[in-house]
């Protein structure tokens, strides 16, 4: 695009923005333009002057139309009904718009009031003004300004009050906030929804442009100004206003408007296309240099340049002004090319019949692009028909259809690297035969055996077929094997996937070299499969070298780079390198958001990784909010009962559980388990993971029978997944502990420790968390020296892995402090206990049950050290912060025993009797009273009762 063209587009945009502003605001903006570009400001001012002098009733100013009335300006403070005018906001051909406020004292409210101009109250204009008011009255949509009130002024002019939107035009709002491409598509889809709603009410706006679409501070768009809107049912003539004057904004007008031909809903679709083009590129699709319809008609045959091509030529400064710093025009161009280019081009068709039939169809295609689905505007093709056929039969062959879609996606990627015609023909034949075999498996007459083979068996056959039939074309053979090789793991056979991908990687190295992009992609896929099953250092090296190659060849903002960064982030969660994992996950999410959209499964997967990182970094509020975003995204794009709901529901349940809101956590786990059973079937590892967490929260709620049942159902699901098998033993150990089966708990924690070491190695936090549990049980059994040694080692490891201020290290400090107290090493116990309390206060807050539990343990050390006043203050604080149903309830009896002990020391007879009685009451409620607690109470009684006791 030439510099002159770009300059004209800037002039046109500024003119459209300024044309409807009140004079004071217009002059203010013109002064800003003068400071930026005096020549440009002069051209805009000249256009404005010419526009003020234009012929046509609705385009004339009041001064020209009725000179004798010009001095009679509408005054600020004028009362109209319940409202008082405050300041002018702008003016159109027939009305002036004011900011007004409620003046009747009923309540405070600010509105926008539109008032017919003086002197132009002809029957035609009056009818048009009242029709606009009528149109607004029939529209009730969150993205269309609502009519609030109306009436006649004292001088006989009609007026109406509508919502006041404090916002910016949609294009300025998007630029100021540097919205990503996907976010712009979402915003535009909301606008199209509002237009579609108006069309459903038989209203065509006819003047859609940025100035008539304001976005508020929350990001919600609002459609304004129905001043020239057309009611489709009022006549059979869908052409112009009743005055015979065509009112249009040249840059956004559809060809039929310019030519005076009939207008309809397709007119608004065209304007939406112009708006999309401008939002995506910062440019207008056509250069229209006049407001005269006769001259504009000559511009209608200009060819439309693709939006992706325009973006690809923008200067870095222009990209930064449009999308913010850090965006690359090539990446944006790639994102726009293809479907988005098609969507915009279809909306901007010269002939109305070739555009989208409705604004709703336009919005639907935008959302299809966002979710990675096939758009309706795409031309028909054999591959399109095949995908449609598969979707039509998805319920009859659900597993086969899911597999088919995965294969098509993989084959599509590999086709790009195939050797054009011959390779495409071979691959097409392979796809066809494979798809046919999937459907033949559902037909008992056509298949060769009594029972249909499983998807896993079909994939295994496909792998063998590729090995046999593609030997003459090594690269094509490796492409297909790499695609197929990722599928067995998803179907429960990770060993086969690793075997196939390891073979492909070896052959890729020989064929293309170590530093080839194709080799890097296989490294990335294989490394991802090995996470949790191999040596973390080896996996990290494999993924890092893959990422280096991908970044060098494809760029750091490519999909391949984002996918590999996600795998490295997942590995970091297991090895404790959390800060770097968060950095990688955020980089990957930014790329996915831009290239895939917010609700695409890959984007949601990376967002899930970020939520996990927040959890590991003890940022629980951020983690919960991020998991809720993931859940909402899956619900929007895939449905409320999709299998992808299982993990985010279970993880949100874990955060809720950590806040000790056990009923809500139990409800989240129950929903996750129900979906997993329905969508994944018994025996699936994801079902096992949800059952593990459900069992743990049931254990915390005291339902040991329910917890044991959940663990038993989970065991076969996680038998082949060492990390989850280890977690099962951790949860069982906690249940054994709650049941006072302490030696069984020690054994279970030791088994979990060994499983975690085999899964993530010694540099993972999980083996050492299992050791914390084992040490606590050893201490309970009186084996304090052994417990202390275990805790010293675990604490040192966790400091190196998670940092000195982490929750894990704080827990280790609390447990070690308890052991040191039992060993009589009170100075160490006090230091460790204080660290424990301070860390949990920072993580959870000062009144959280976890903090209260730590505070009570610290008070016990203070009591043992003779710091009676300090111990009393902490125990009273715990009692004051007590929450029924929380973990503190489990130590409530001990809490009142120690409070009674302090009262005995202080000689507070009344407090002693009250606390001892409360402790006895709490112990008596237990189905199996703790004999240790009863003995401690008896010892207190023997140590010297206060006088006056019965």
Automatic annotation (TrEMBL):
<keyword id="KW-1133">Transmembrane helix</keyword>
<dbReference type="InterPro" id="IPR008271">
    <property type="entry name" value="Ser/Thr_kinase_AS"/>
</dbReference>
<keyword id="KW-0418">Kinase</keyword>
<dbReference type="GO" id="GO:0005524">
    <property type="term" value="F:ATP binding"/>
</dbReference>
<keyword id="KW-0812">Transmembrane</keyword>
<keyword id="KW-0472">Membrane</keyword>
<keyword id="KW-0808">Transferase</keyword>
<dbReference type="Pfam" id="PF00069">
    <property type="entry name" value="Pkinase"/>
</dbReference>
<keyword id="KW-0547">Nucleotide-binding</keyword>
<feature type="transmembrane region" description="Helical">
    <location>
        <begin position="395"/>
        <end position="416"/>
    </location>
</feature>
<dbReference type="InterPro" id="IPR000719">
    <property type="entry name" value="Prot_kinase_dom"/>
</dbReference>
<dbReference type="InterPro" id="IPR011990">
    <property type="entry name" value="TPR-like_helical_dom_sf"/>
</dbReference>
<dbReference type="InterPro" id="IPR019734">
    <property type="entry name" value="TPR_rpt"/>
</dbReference>
<dbReference type="GO" id="GO:0004674">
    <property type="term" value="F:protein serine/threonine kinase activity"/>
</dbReference>
<keyword id="KW-0067">ATP-binding</keyword>
<feature type="domain" description="Protein kinase">
    <location>
        <begin position="83"/>
        <end position="370"/>
    </location>
</feature>
<dbReference type="Pfam" id="PF13424">
    <property type="entry name" value="TPR_12"/>
</dbReference>
<dbReference type="InterPro" id="IPR017441">
    <property type="entry name" value="Protein_kinase_ATP_BS"/>
</dbReference>
<feature type="binding site">
    <location>
        <position position="114"/>
    </location>
    <ligand>
        <name>ATP</name>
    </ligand>
</feature>
<protein>
    <submittedName>
        <fullName>Serine/threonine-protein kinase</fullName>
    </submittedName>
</protein>
<dbReference type="InterPro" id="IPR011009">
    <property type="entry name" value="Kinase-like_dom_sf"/>
</dbReference>
């Amino acid at each position: 695009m030439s510099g002159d063209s770009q300059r004209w587009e800037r002039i046109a945009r500024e003119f459209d923005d300024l044309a409807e502003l009140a004079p004071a605001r217009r002059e203010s903006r013109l002064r800003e333009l003068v400071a930026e570009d005096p020549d440009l400001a002069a051209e805009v001012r000249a256009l404005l002057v010419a526009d003020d002098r234009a012929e046509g009733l609705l385009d004339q100013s009041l001064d020209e139309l009725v000179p004798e009335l010009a001095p009679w300006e509408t005054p600020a403070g004028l009362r109209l009904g319940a409202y008082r005018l405050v300041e002018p906001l702008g003016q159109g051909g027939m009305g002036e718009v004011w900011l007004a406020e409620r003046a009747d004292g009923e309540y405070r409210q600010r509105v926008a009031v539109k008032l017919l101009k003086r002197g132009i109250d002809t029957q035609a204009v009056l009818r048009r003004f009242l029709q606009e008011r009528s149109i607004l009255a029939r529209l009730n949509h969150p993205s269309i300004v609502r009519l609030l009130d109306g009436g006649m002024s004292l001088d006989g002019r009609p007026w109406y009050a509508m919502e006041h939107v404090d916002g910016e035009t949609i294009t300025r709002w998007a630029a100021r906030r540097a919205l990503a491409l996907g976010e712009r598509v979402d915003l535009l889809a909301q606008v199209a929804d509002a237009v579609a709603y108006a069309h459903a009410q038989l209203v065509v706006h006819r003047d859609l442009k940025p100035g008539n679409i304001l976005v508020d501070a929350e990001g919600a768009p609002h459609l304004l100004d129905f001043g020239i809107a057309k009611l489709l049912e009022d006549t059979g003539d869908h052409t112009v206003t009743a005055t015979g004057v065509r009112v249009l904004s040249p840059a956004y007008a559809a060809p039929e408007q310019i030519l005076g031909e009939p207008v309809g809903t397709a007119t608004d679709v065209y304007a939406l296309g112009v708006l999309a083009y401008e939002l995506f590129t910062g440019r207008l699709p056509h250069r229209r240099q006049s407001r005269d319809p006769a001259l504009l008609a000559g511009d209608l045959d200009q060819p439309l340049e693709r939006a992706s091509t325009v973006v690809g030529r923008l200067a870095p400064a222009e990209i930064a002004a449009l999308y913010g710093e850090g965006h690359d025009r090539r990446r944006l161009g790639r994102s726009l090319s293809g479907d988005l280019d098609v969507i915009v081009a279809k909306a901007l068709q010269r002939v109305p019949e070739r555009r989208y039939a409705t604004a709703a169809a336009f919005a639907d295609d935008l959302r299809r692009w966002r979710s990675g689905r096939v758009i309706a505007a795409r031309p028909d093709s054999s591959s399109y028909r095949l995908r449609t056929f598969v979707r039509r039969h998805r319920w009859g062959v659900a597993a086969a259809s899911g597999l088919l879609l995965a294969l098509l996606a993989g084959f599509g990627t590999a086709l790009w690297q195939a050797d054009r015609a011959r390779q495409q023909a071979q691959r097409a034949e392979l796809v066809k035969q494979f798809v046919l075999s999937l459907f033949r498996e559902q037909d008992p007459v056509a298949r060769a055996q009594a029972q249909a083979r499983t998807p896993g068996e079909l994939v295994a056959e496909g792998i063998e077929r590729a090995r046999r039939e593609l030997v003459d074309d090594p690269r094509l053979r490796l492409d297909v094997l790499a695609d197929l090789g990722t599928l067995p793991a998803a179907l429960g056979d990770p060993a086969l996937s690793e075997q196939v991908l390891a073979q492909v990687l070896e052959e890729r190295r020989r064929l293309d070299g170590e530093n080839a992009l194709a080799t890097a992609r296989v490294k990335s896929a294989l490394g991802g499969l090995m996470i949790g099953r191999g040596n973390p250092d080896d996996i990290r090296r494999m993924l890092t070298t893959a990422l280096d190659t991908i970044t060098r060849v494809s760029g750091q903002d490519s999909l391949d780079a984002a996918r590999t960064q996600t795998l490295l982030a997942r590995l970091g969660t297991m090895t404790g390198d959390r800060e770097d994992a968060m950095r990688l996950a955020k980089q990957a999410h930014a790329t996915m958001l831009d290239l895939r959209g917010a609700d695409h499964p890959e984007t949601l997967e990376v967002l899930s990784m970020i939520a996990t990182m927040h959890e590991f970094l003890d940022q629980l509020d951020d983690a919960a909010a991020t998991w809720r975003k993931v859940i909402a995204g899956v619900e929007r794009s895939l449905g409320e009962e999709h299998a992808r709901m299982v993990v985010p529901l279970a993880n949100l349940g874990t955060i809720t559980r950590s806040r000790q809101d056990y009923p809500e956590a139990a409800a989240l786990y129950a929903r996750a388990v129900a979906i997993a059973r329905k969508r994944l079937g018994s025996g699936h590892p994801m079902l096992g993971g949800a059952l593990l967490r459900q069992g743990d929260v049931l254990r915390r709620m005291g339902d040991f029978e329910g917890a044991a049942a959940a663990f038993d159902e989970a065991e076969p699901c996680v038998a082949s997944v060492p990390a989850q098998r280890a977690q099962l033993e951790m949860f069982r150990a906690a249940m054994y502990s709650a049941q006072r089966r302490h030696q069984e708990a020690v054994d279970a924690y030791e088994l979990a420790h060994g499983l975690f070491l085999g899964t993530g190695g010694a540099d993972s936090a999980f083996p050492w968390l299992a050791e914390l549990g084992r040490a606590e049980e050893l201490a309970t059994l009186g084996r304090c020296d052994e417990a202390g040694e275990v805790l010293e080692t675990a604490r040192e490891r966790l400091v190196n892995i998670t940092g000195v201020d982490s929750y894990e290290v704080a827990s280790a400090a609390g447990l070690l402090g308890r052991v040191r107290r039992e060993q009589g090493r009170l100075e160490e116990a006090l230091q460790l206990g204080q660290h424990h309390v301070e860390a949990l206060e920072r993580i959870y807050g000062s009144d959280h049950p976890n903090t209260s539990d730590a505070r009570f343990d610290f008070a016990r050390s203070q009591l043992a050290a003779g710091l009676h006043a300090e111990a009393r203050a902490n125990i009273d604080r715990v009692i004051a912060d007590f929450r029924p149903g929380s973990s503190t309830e489990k130590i409530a009896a001990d809490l009142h025993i120690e409070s009674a002990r302090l009262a005995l020391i202080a000689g507070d007879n009344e407090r002693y009797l009250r606390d001892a009685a409360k402790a006895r009451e709490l112990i008596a409620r237990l189905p199996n009273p703790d004999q240790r607690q009863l003995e401690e109470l008896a010892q207190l009684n023997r140590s010297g009762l206060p006088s006056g006791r019965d």
